[in-house]
Structures are given as C-alpha cells and as structure tokens.
Design brief:
Layout lengths: L7 H10 L4 H20 L10 E4 H5 L8 E8 L10 H12 L2 H4 L10 E5 L4 E5 L4 E9 L8 E5 L4 E5 L1 H14 L4 H15 L7 H14 L8 H22 L22 H23 L3 H12 L14 H6 L37
The chain binds adenosine-5'-triphosphate and magnesium ion.
Magnesium ion (MG) binds next to helix 3 and strand 2.
Length: 365
C-alpha cells in the first residue's frame, strides 16, 4: 500500500545532507594521488601497470558522512597458490615502503609524526593526523588486471584470498541503472542508518552492501516503490532473513554471501555484535512502518527523524518536484498549491544545511 506521505523531497534532502562535505571530497582527491605517485615511482617495492586503483566506498560513490577512508589497490606480481610472495611478508614490505612516505612528502622532525603508518589485516593504513584522514593501501595479485578476480593478502592466515572489488562496483552500478538509480541511495540510507543508530559494534559496510545487493537481486523488493517504502522493506527483509538465528541458536551468526564470488564474507561477525545489529534493524523497521502508516505529515516526519536523526531528515523542505522525487515515487506529485513552502529549522537547532555541491569526486583510475 502506498504511504499517505511518501515525503520524497524530504528523502532527497536527507540524501544531500549525508553527502560528504566538499572539503573532505577535495582531500579524498588530493591525498591518495600523492601516495599513489610515491608507490608507482618506487624502485624497491615493485608494482605492475597500472600500479594502483581506487576501490571501496569512495570508488563506488557510496560514501556517507565524512569520508571515513579511501581504499586503494596496489598491484604486485606473484602466485597466490604458492603464496609467492608470502602474504605476510608482502604486507611488511609495503609497510617498509610507506614508512618512507613522510620524508618523501617533506615532513621533517615533529611533522613526521603527523603521518601514521600501520599494518592491518590485509592492508597498510596511512593516517594523516593533521587532516584527520585515513587511507588504506591493499596490495593485490591481479593476474588479469584490476577488473577481474584478484587476490588480497590475509596477514593472520598468511595466504592470499580471492576478492573481486571491481566486480562488486560493476554489479552495483548495473543494478543502480536498472532500477531507476535507487539502489545507491537506498544503500546510503542503510549505511547512514547504521552510523546514526550504532556508535559501536557496527557491521562492516561491505556486509551491508552485500545484503543490499542480495535483496535487490532476489526480487524481494518492489523497486518501483518510493525510498521510504524501500528502506522499510529492506529492513524487513533483513529481519526475516536472520531473525530465526536469534532464537534457534545461542551462537549462530549469518553467512553473508559475497555478491560476486559467493563465499561467506561475514564469518568473523561476533554474536553480540550481530544481536545488537538485529535489535537496531527491528526498531528501525517498526519506526519506518509507523512513519509510512502515519495519519498526519508531522507524525511521519517525526518517525523518520527518529530513524535518521533530525539534523539530517528535515522538518520542512521546498516542495518543488525534482527528478529524484519523480523517480523515487512516480505518480506521487509533491508540488504544493503555492508551489513552495519555505524551509524552517527544527527546534533542536541541530539542522545541517544542504551541501551546495553534490558528491561527484570519483576518479576511476
Ligand atoms: N570481507 C571482505 N571480503 C571481500 N572484500 C572485502 C571485505 N571487506 C572489505 N572488502 C573490500 O574492501 C573494500 C573496502 O572496505 P571498507 O571496510 O573500507 O568498506 P567500504 O566499502 O570502503 O565502506 P566505508 O569505508 O565507507 O565504511 C570494500 O569495498 C570491498 O571491496
Ligand atoms: Mg572504505
């Protein structure tokens, strides 16, 4: 049943409000480029053409809020089957290279401490403290180039693991196009919901992305519905998919399949973290249902603000029909009789004004 108040223009504002600030996008464009040039030029740590490639949420155009990190693949030669080079050692070698980054960038003395370089499970993490910006460099053996199946190191198991990051991006883009450009906005809402409702025990973004693509592909979601309905239905689907694990077992957690390779990507999800996530999902889907069933507009808005935060979901918006509003819920026009309602600020004063520029900072190489 179509909701009384689809609030399409509100959702459009919400999506703008969760876009990264322009200054962060500029930093996301500038910093990785510096490090990528440094890696490419190295004569000691050898990489193969085209050397590096952006991956992760930044390359997917799926960033919400501050840009948390920018992920970059670094292509090296090797044979994953024989563990050559040794996965553990390769991470160590890349760390050795990146330890030279502060000096290369001209940071000296105390300034050197402004760049932290750390080993992670499958990457080297570079933190620019002065700009509060994180970069992840993931080495990979890509026998047929970045666009195909590749292998990333697992430090703990000292082996190379199959992964298909660009296949994921291609699939996401394909589905987004097929379903009226609603898949990415829906995914961003899910990520923002997680960020807003969970301060810790957060599930990984990649798991959320995989859940999203799974439900879009199974056809469980009516992709013609407006974003509010889609969001509620997605939470419902996740709830019904995994709810039984909560009461049939004391230890079980979901096996979320990789959208491209199909293997279980959530094997390290702890039971307590999973339970917390399921509680937030259950709450969210109930509030969303209240919002969709609300008999008056303000009540609907109040519930959506509970879900997404009143600093993000506006109380009032200019109700001029836009492309997204039309695409989000065809047939439900939102033009008021006057054509315009002036925006007002919510009582809390937490309202963030719309970002003037839309996020479009993606370099594809
Ligand atoms: N368990 C996994 N299995 C396979 N690939 C993964 C896994 N976790 C992460 N990745 C790959 O690494 C990329 C970067 O992971 P990261 O945790 O930074 O998530 P993200 O999608 O960039 O989201 P964000 O950084 O906004 O939280 C993912 O987009 C995905 O391609
Ligand atoms: Mg990332």
């Amino acid at each position: 049943m179509a909701p009384n108040f689809p609030l399409n223009t509100h959702f459009e504002e919400l999506l703008k409000n969760i876009q990264p600030p322009v200054a962060r996008i500029k930093t996301a464009q500038r910093l990785p480029r510096l490090v990528r040039d440094y890696i490419k030029a190295s004569q000691t740590f050898l990489t193969i053409t085209p050397h590096t490639r952006l991956a992760g949420s930044y390359a997917q155009n799926m960033v919400v809020g501050e840009v948390k990190d920018v992920d970059t693949l670094v292509r090296v030669s090797g044979n994953p089957e024989t563990n050559e080079p040794e996965a553990k050692q390769l991470i160590r070698d890349l760390k050795g290279l990146l330890d030279g980054l502060p000096a290369y960038l001209g940071y000296e003395g105390y300034a050197e401490t402004q760049i932290e370089v750390e080993r992670a499970r499958r990457s080297i993490h570079v933190y620019f403290k002065d700009e509060d910006f994180h970069l992840d460099f993931v080495p990979c053996i890509a026998p047929d180039g970045f666009k195909n199946l590749l292998y990333v190191p697992d430090r703990d198991f000292n082996e190379w693991i199959a992964s298909h990051p660009i296949g994921y991006i291609t699939l996401l883009n394909k589905l987004n196009k097929k379903y009226g450009k609603k898949v990415k906005p829906l995914g961003k809402l899910l990520k923002h919901f997680r960020n807003h409702q969970m301060k810790n025990r957060k599930p990984k973004s990649y798991w959320l992305g995989a859940l999203l693509l799974y439900h879009v592909q199974t056809g469980n979601l009516n992709m013609d519905a407006c974003l509010g309905v889609l969001f509620r239905d997605l939470l419902d689907e996740i709830h019904y998919q995994y709810d039984h694990l909560l009461w049939t077992s004391d230890t079980a957690t979901p096996n979320i399949p990789d959208p491209v390779l199909n293997h279980n990507i959530s094997w390290n999800w702890s039971r307590t973290h999973f339970k917390t996530f399921m509680s937030r999902i259950d709450e969210g889907r109930q509030w969303a249902t209240e919002a969709l069933d609300a008999g008056d507009r303000d009540e609907a808005i109040t519930y959506w603000q509970k879900i997404f935060g009143e600093e993000y979901f506006p109380s009032e918006v200019e109700t001029v029909v836009s492309n997204l509003a039309n695409a989000a819920c065809p047939g439900k026009s939102l033009v008021s009789s006057t054509g315009l309602i002036l925006p007002s600020q919510p009582a809390s004063g937490l309202y963030t004004t719309t970002q003037p520029t839309k996020f479009h900072g993606i370099e594809q190489v």
